[in-house]
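Holo model, flavin mononucleotide. Inputs:
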Amino acid sequence: MKKRIQLAFDMSWTTVETQWRLPGSWVDQHHPNIGLFEEAARQAERGGLDMIFFGDSTGIPSTWKDSIEDAVSYGVAWPRFEMSPWITAMSRVTSHLGFGLTYASTFMHPFYTARLLNSLDHITNGRIAFNVITSQRRADFANYGYDELVDHNERYERLEEFIDVCRRLWDSVAPDAFIWDRKTGMVADPTKVKAINHVGKFFKVAGPLSVIPSPQVHPVILQAGGSPRGTRAAAHVADHVFGLTKTVPLMAQQRSDLDKALVAEGRDPEKVGILWSSRAVVGETKAEADALRESMIADVPVEAVGAWLSHNTGYDMSLLPPKFSLRELQERIVAANASPVGFVSLLAKQHGETAEITREEFFRHGLSAATGHNITFAGTATQLADQMEEMFEATGSRGGFMLSVSQSAPRAIMLNIIDQLVPELKRRGRYRKSYEGKTLRENLSA
Ligand SMILES: Cc1cc2nc3c(=O)[nH]c(=O)nc-3n(C[C@H](O)[C@H](O)[C@H](O)COP(=O)(O)O)c2cc1C
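Output:
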């Protein structure tokens, strides 16, 4: 039997960056109407998708020109809500669909987070995934008391300890601890409820967690670290990994690096999928899809691109000279503790490490990255399925895709993914006919 492709829908971007200007947008008229989110969830479940996912960043970008002005003007990375209450509402109109939400271990506390996720796992009946990130954005750090980014390695050390503590807390109450004996008045067996007494570099947590174990006990953990240190952390904490769609050889390299890191952790690489983050534009013809894809980069102000690039690389791109070396820029980004494997490093791989680039050229590439144009599959359903199968096989046939769409949800999720792409993948035996598991963990490993 052919290996199945997993599909999740990333709904993070439908209201930010330039997405809201595209055809079918419902911002201004309906956003943030919970009814629209509920409808997107119903549609995603109709299509049999594994999960709707929400990434996060908490600060309004402020690195570009040391100001939030352009980000505010053009809706770069904002507005963004705390998604847990919205997920609760979406879960009440669905039965199988999973939900992924994102918090930064750099700012949150594991006791609070473990307790929150336990509640969400109860409410959704075992359909929660936690995408744990370190954050690399100055505006986020500024909201949590930091003037500078915390050292990149230290962020990952904290992330590993954070998840270790969460897991011990989720295990601190045994699944059969509760008795609820009306006659004796016994609620729970004290021998099955244990303190964890964790004392580590970053956290001191006594425990136990004051809750009933949830259906999954441990919500599914996702992680997106792409640097060597991030890959090690992902191998330590993640059930499944997020990857950024790149060229096929670079994706295959990431898969192979992750496999080595998993083996070093004593884990089986066959059980850990990578969900590749990409965008889908499906048309009746290739020309129609291409035209839609090109509309993503039309009329985007350069200030919006600058605010996006500066936010995501930790370097104020308004200071760039007319011509510069990508290597030097990359060195400055690494020195500032932002990600060593972000936009500039990928561009350096494309152009050659020693290449010089003009400011205009740099911003042209930046426009494509900021709008998701560079990771958009555009074509007919058959062409998209061909491309996805090729990438899936080249990266070890484990995991699948975290797709977003270039127009607005929920209409575009139907037009692109559910009514066109999913049936094509099903025809090829690459997608399951219906949900097979009860929990998200079971569906992701099906
Ligand atoms: C698919 C994907 C989703 C991500 N989602 C978020 C997010 O929601 N919020 C965030 O601050 N960073 C997000 N990131 C960035 C990662 O957390 C991480 O910083 C990045 O992959 C670079 O890896 P590194 O930190 O190991 O250098 C995401 C990355 C990828 C590839």
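The pocket of flavin mononucleotide is lined by residues 55-57, 102, 133-137, 224-227, 230, 242-244, 277, 339-341, 402 (CB under 6 Å). The mean pLDDT is 93.
Archived with the compound record.
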